[in-house]
Design a protein that fits this description.
The chain is of the alpha+beta class. It has 11 helices and 25 strands.
Length: 538
């Protein structure tokens, strides 16, 4: 009777133990899962501890939060464009074939620099005719110069002869004059006759006539006329030389082009800038038609335009010359300032916007045509001071806007609510208070440090301890299963030991009978397979 009672008791305890385990394990698993889900939330708000030396190496800069008056701006989007007169298509002045390209894409050129050489059949024909005429004119010029040289030599020879004749006539006049004067004195003294005096006077008149003739011959040399004709011939020949290429030069002047010594048309850059496109290759034929490809495209982007649209309701606050701040997404942490250069005069019917263009300085070539840009047209300052922080202090993490606040040697992440933005500054509506020392540079590094280490180094040392403690608490919650299981095992063992041999045999016979009864209820195929087995021996 006692063994039967113990056997029943053990069965009851086993069932109770199974029910307790089935009830406790889901609860414990749920508690564990809840703890695991709560860990990221707890870790995301853990402060990051960084000593002063490490903060210096990381470039962390801390500044106190202050209030200031922000510029109220009208924001719009647009793109970067070149100035209208600083994007030029270099085209061929006349139909021809490209012989050589002297500027590569991306290279810089100056205004007036030769960028291509062009061969034109029309100009080539004019040049051949000009050369032929010039050769003829130069041959005539050489003949005229030779005639001039002969005339000059003849003139010089006649001039020297006339000078010699003049000197001889002057000498003869002087001698005859002296003789005439002496004869007159002698006549007065009665030494000579009057006839001798008259003869001396006749000789003097003849000598004076010869002198006059010599003087006139010197001024009117025959070679003078010949010299003049030769000089005129040289001038005419020179004129023919100049006019020999008149048609060729006139055509070049009409085209506003020049040619080199080989007769190739020199295509020059109309502006200074960079070559951004060169669709033509050497050997291609170009025309002056509008559909013809340009030789190359030049852009001078030392100054560029940022174009955008402003709604009709904001037109009263936009004026020419007003300051504009431009931000380009491809150039983070940089802004460009300029002034409005042009405001459109027509409002688009559907969108009710007006185009606005601001001119920017781009001497460092940072801005490229076609870049998307955000424009902030600065109007006036806000009426009151607001709490503002720089954009570099903001970190977006897990869908939250975070700012790191310094607390001693730790940096605590604080979620903030932002307001209006002005340039690199943004208003903070909630989350900070005046005087808070926030990280303005290096916030992204702190965020990355938090993501990698889940907190400061000191905090990481405590994490394993907390995990071990939690596991210990979980095991402690199941301590009662140990003595209960031991008691059940002992009761089961005691019941087995208390059974008698005869009772065991009866139990075996009883189990065999049950087995045989179940075997009879099986299908015929199963019975055949069981009949092949040896019968059970009592």
């Amino acid at each position: 009777m006692i063994p039967q009672t113990m056997r029943c008791t053990s069965r009851w305890l086993v069932g109770a133990l199974l029910v307790a385990i089935a009830t406790a394990l889901p609860t414990q698993i749920a508690i564990s899962e809840t703890s695991q889900e709560d860990k990221p939330a707890a870790q995301s708000i853990v402060s990051i501890r960084v000593d002063a030396e490490a903060a210096t190496r990381m470039g962390i800069k801390v500044e106190p939060v202050a209030r200031q008056r922000l510029k109220i701006a009208i924001k719009t989007t647009g793109q970067i464009e070149p100035l209208p007169d600083q994007k030029v298509l270099v085209t061929a002045p006349i139909q021809g074939r490209i012989v050589q390209l002297l500027a590569k894409p991306g290279s810089s050129v100056n205004a007036g620099q030769v960028v291509a050489l062009l061969s034109s059949p029309e100009l080539a024909q004019l040049r051949v005719e000009a050369i032929s005429k010039r050769d003829e004119a130069e041959a005539g010029l050489q003949q005229a110069r030779a005639d001039l040289q002969l005339a000059q030599q003849n003139y010089e020879r006649q001039r020297l002869q006339a000078i010699a004749d003049l000197k001889q006539a002057q000498t003869q006049v002087a001698l005859v004059q002296e003789r005439y004067d002496r004869n007159r004195e002698l006549q007065a003294a009665g030494a000579v006759t009057r006839r001798q005096v008259q003869e001396s006077q006749t000789e003097l008149s003849a000598a004076q006539a010869t002198l006059t003739k010599a003087q006139s011959r010197l001024g009117e040399l025959e070679a003078t006329a010949q010299l003049s004709r030769s000089q005129a011939g040289v001038s005419a020949a020179q004129s023919r030389v100049r006019l020999s290429s008149a048609a060729y030069d006139a055509r070049l002047s009409q085209l506003k082009a020049t040619a080199n010594a080989d007769g190739l048309v020199q295509v020059t850059a109309p502006i200074s800038g960079r070559v951004v496109d060169r669709p033509i290759t050497p050997g291609e034929t170009v025309t002056v038609e509008a559909a013809s490809k340009p030789i190359m495209t030049l852009i001078n982007d030392d100054r560029v335009l940022a174009s955008g649209n402003v709604y009709e309701k904001d037109l009263d606050e936009v004026k020419t010359g007003q300051r504009v701040r431009v931000i380009v997404k491809s150039l983070p942490n940089r802004s460009f300032e300029g002034r409005i250069a042009d405001i459109g005069t027509v409002i688009e019917g559907t969108t009710r916007v007006v185009p606005v263009k601001a001119e920017l300085n781009n001497s460092n070539q940072s801005l490229k045509s076609g870049m998307f840009a955000e424009l902030e047209i600065l109007t006036e300052q806000s009426s009151t001071s607001v709490m503002a922080i720089p954009n570099s202090a903001i970190v977006n993490k897990e869908g939250k806007t975070i700012v790191f606040v310094q607390q001693a040697d730790s940096y605590h992440p604080v979620e903030v609510t932002l307001g209006q933005q002005s340039g690199n500054w943004v208003e903070v509506k909630q989350g900070l208070k005046d005087g808070d020392r926030i990280v303005t540079e290096g916030a992204a590094l702190l965020s990355g440090q938090s993501a990698e280490g889940n907190g400061a180094a000191a905090d990481n040392d405590d994490k394993p301890k907390q995990t071990d403690k939690a596991q210990t608490n979980e095991l402690r919650d199941l301590w009662w299963l140990i003595p209960v299981g031991s008691a059940i095992a002992f009761a089961f063992w005691a019941g087995r030991r208390s059974r008698s041999p005869g009772k065991l045999e009866k139990v075996a016979d009883y189990e065999t009978e049950i087995y045989l009864e179940r075997s009879k209820s099986l299908p015929e195929t199963s019975n055949k397979s069981e009949d092949s087995q040896p019968p059970h021996q009592d």
